[in-house]
Amino acid sequence: MASHIVGYPRMGPKRELKFALESFWDKKSSAEDLQKVAAGLRSSIWKQMADAGIKYIPSNTFSYYDQVLDTTAMLGAVPPRYGWNGGEIGFDTYFSMARGNASVPAMEMTKWFDTNYHFIVPELGPDVRFSYASHKAVDEYKEAKALGVNTVPVLVGPVSYLLLSKPAKGVEKTFSLLSLLPKILPIYKEVISELKAAGASWIQFDEPTLVLDLDSHQLQAFTAAYADLESTLSGLNVLIETYFADLTSGAYKTLIELKGVTAYGLDLVRGTKTIDLIKTNFPKGKFLFAGVVDGRNIWANDLASSLGTLQALEAIVGKDNLVVSTSCSLLHTAVDLVNETKLDDEIKSWLAFAAQKVVEVNALAKALAGQKDEAFFTSNATAQASRKSSPRVTNEAVQKAAAALKGSDHRRATNVSARLDAQQKKLNLPVLPTTTIGSFPQTLELRRVRREFKANKISEDDYVKAIKEEIKKVVDLQEELDIDVLVHGEPERNDMVEYFGEQLSGFAFTVNGWVQSYGSRCVKPPIIYGDVSRPKPMTVFWSSTAQSMTSRPMKGMLTGPVTILNWSFVRNDQPRFETCYQIALAIKDEVEDLEKAGINVIQIDEAALREGLPLRKSEHAFYLKWAVHSFRITNCGVKDTTQIHTHMCYSNFNDIIHSIIDMDADVITIENSRSDEKLLSVFREGVKYGAGIGPGVYDIHSPRIPSTEEIADRINKMLAVLETNILWVNPDCGLKTRKYAEVKPALNNMVAAAKLLRAQLASAK
Predict the structure, then answer these.
(1) What Å distances lie between residue 76 and 31, 94, 160, CA to CA?
(2) For domain 413-764, which CATH number applies: 3.40.190.10, 3.10.20.30, 3.30.70.100, 3.20.20.210?
(3) 3 state SS of 530
(4) 321 SS3 class
(5) What is the dihedral sign for C-alpha 159, 165, 167, 169?
(6) Is the four-CA dihedral 294, 298, 304, 305 of positive or negative sign?
(7) pLDDT per residue over 50-75, tens digit each?
(8) H or E stretch at 293
């Protein structure tokens, strides 16, 4: 029985690629140095999978930034502003598209389906001249082959690539991206031909958009694309891989009827209903790559249950045609549990990271072939039983409090317009008030202080003194820049979710459980293993300390319950909404303690609310109901004069704008500049927003410093669709990934732009 892995984490077990990328970007190392690190990581991944007994090992799943950008490079679809003149695309052009440069902004970045991974959105139009401009897929196949590993090259499928793209600036929004299919398929044919010539026997096309709500025209595009590719694919085994949800009956029918396709990869963890479609109709002689090992969470597989599923499928598709696989790429999980030396032994026994999932896949394949490792299965069953019965998982008081939430919608008693009036009397802010989103640059010195405190190398007194000094520096800088509502810069926090999880019960933490978010940015999601509560205040000391340093309003900074949920590895033994309600109650306690401590502006970030939206429209209403309710729970008890902010970033918000309004925050700051001010279109279309709103005026994920004029132009576009008295001026997101040399001039220009517009508005009266 064969085994397959959809994809594997790229960063390395200790973030080796992250550090190599950042060293290269900072001009501290060469392109050759970066390529050497990358080659070493690829080699170790392929060898690891081969040693584990995996038959179908992927190549071309490694990326220096993201796989969609790699496809843009392969197709030569470089926007003109980057000055690319043809030939093989090098690092300069590639990273300029991803990060921007001194003269031009980066391409838009958005969430990859409903994950916390991001991709660079292709900008396409009728005039794009596609050309075969990156041979990465073929080069990596040959590289693996030279090491003695015959891999399955993986390409983002042509239809999904187009469906994930957007019309370039200046192109009509109604432009049909799928009309470009005849223009990109010739390049796919060149790649396929080169892979065949290099000796490839299998090829994998990732077509995850098949799990979305697609119309007949979109489904027909898949049929047309693979019919066109059929003759080129002749002689190859072709796997179409889908993931993250069930297939509709229409999408399933389209998939199994595609020309020239040998095998279908299906997510049977998040797509359990797809099994019914397989039972009803599976084409004879085709392969089913059954994704029974979860690629998006860190819980050990219930091997006995998965084996039962596989045996049932084997009876349908045939013994020789069933391949055991992961549900999706393992990119979305941590790398290797072996590196976790500080995790509690009991909790550790419940977990499996990417390396362990590879072993699980192979163990299931061997068991299905009659070579079951009884000891491995017995150990797994023991761990499953331990998790179900462990007293540390359940807290009856928490469950009772969460159950009591039913029956109320937890809205603040006064409407937002009246609250804003009360808040303005207290805060006395100017028109177009300026603020930032929360974090300030995390310097090497600051990271050293936190690291040494965690390692008990400095005392708590020394740590508190150092953090206070950093807060004072950030407060003084904001006052010098004349920002209106200040933040303390979050110097005590390495990560906005990890920081809170460390102080809440029911969470566990890793040392090296890093997961790529985008580019070199990695996050270390907490593990929610049990019921959640707040033993003591988490941020009150630092917020109160910061407020004591200034007479200006100081924001209390919290992460919201939905974001904590969506950016954690969440327990899978109860519905997600129940866990979210528990977190909401814990954050509510913190909000009320901040208010008691004299903090008049409290920001509860819900950066990840949109990314948790199910991929199917039929499931949207239920998710949005409990997600928005969870946010309202956190602040329903505060006074009218306490201003509640929230923040959202890097998602498409237009389709959930009414749910955002229903959150009933006093002020929302929201990503806007990198997505070509897409957000503003919803207000042009007549949506009325009565609360305060701060669409971001510049992109913080690029080192580029916007001019005062550029920011003023952005604010003017906002004033064209939003009332002056509700508009705030702020960056897109937090500043932790930037350097002070970039932050100071950018914020200076932002404040100058706000003052310029205030003066113009005053003179126009």
Answers:
(1) 21, 11, 17
(2) 3.20.20.210
(3) strand
(4) helix
(5) negative
(6) negative
(7) 999 999 999 999 999 999 999 999 99
(8) strand 287-293
Q: Which amino acid is at 9?
A: P
For β-strands 202-206 and 152-156, DSSP reports them as parallel
b/e sequence 725-745, b meaning 16+ C-beta within 10 Å = ebbbbbbbbbbbbbeeebbbe
Q: Indicate the pTM of the whole model.
A: 0.91
Burial of 182 (0-12, 13-18, 19+ CB in 10 A): exposed
User: Domain coordinates of the chain in residue numbers?
Assistant: 2-389, 413-764
b/e map of 366-390 (b: 16 or more CB within 10 Å)? bbbeeeeeeeebeebeebbeebeee
For domain 2-389, the CATH class is alpha beta
Q: Supply the residues annotated as catalytic.
A: 701
Q: Which residue has the higher pLDDT, 577 or 670?
A: 577
Mean pLDDT over residues 234-258, rounded?
97
Q: Is 438 annotated as a binding residue?
A: yes
Residue range 83-139, pLDDT digits in tens: 999 999 999 999 999 999 988 989 999 889 999 899 999 999 999 999 999 999 999
Among the listed residues 481, 483, 526, 491, the one whose alpha carbon sits nearest the alpha carbon of residue 506: 526
Strand spans (E) along 33-165: 58-59, 109-111, 118-120, 123-124, 152-156
| Residue 677 Ramachandran class (φ > 0 left, ψ -120 to 50 alpha, else beta) | left
Torsion of CA 65, 69, 75, 79, to 10 degrees: -120
Check whether 426 is labelled as a binding-site residue: no
2-389 shares its CATH topology with 413-764 = yes
Distance from C-alpha of 121 to C-alpha of 65, rounded to nearest angstrom: 12
To the question of whether residue 658 is assigned a binding role by annotation, the answer is: yes
Q: Are strands 505-508 and 527-533 parallel, antiparallel or unpaired?
A: antiparallel
Do residues 202 and 152 make contact, with C-beta atoms less than 8 angstroms apart? yes
348 sits in which H/E element: helix 345-348
Q: What is the DSSP letter of 247?
A: P
**Does the annotation list 43 as a binding residue?**
no
The count of other CB atoms within 10 Å of the CB of residue 647 is 27
Q: What would the mean pLDDT of 24-32 be, rounded to a whole number? A: 96
